[in-house]
Amino acid sequence: MLHVDDMHAQYVTDRNGVKKSVILPINDFYELLEDLEDLASVAERKDEPTISHEQVVEELKKNGLL
After folding, report:
1. Would you call 22 helix, strand, or coil by DSSP?
2. Torsions phi, psi of 25, nearest 5?
């Protein structure tokens, strides 16, 4: 996950020095978009039932994936 301190942001300010816009390196922008997509997925699935780690491992083994 990208942290604000790690970004190389530049700011567009008005005549009073108030920040109005931000310019980001394209890779930082895409990483932020990916983080937003991940958060949207988590929000969509928040009400789904959970299963234990042991059950996941068991199902993966049963399906030949582990």
Report:
1. strand
2. -60, 145
Length of the chain: 66
Across the range 32-56, mean pLDDT stands at: 95
| pLDDT of residue 21 exceeding 80 | yes
Instruction: Say if pTM beats, i.e. exceeds, 0.90.
Output: no
Residues 21 and 11: beta-carbon distance below 8 Å: yes
Tokens encoding 58: 């068991």
19 beta partners:
13
> What is the pLDDT, as a whole number, of residue 4?
77
Given a contact cutoff of 8 angstroms between Cβ atoms, the answer to whether 25 and 8 are in contact is yes
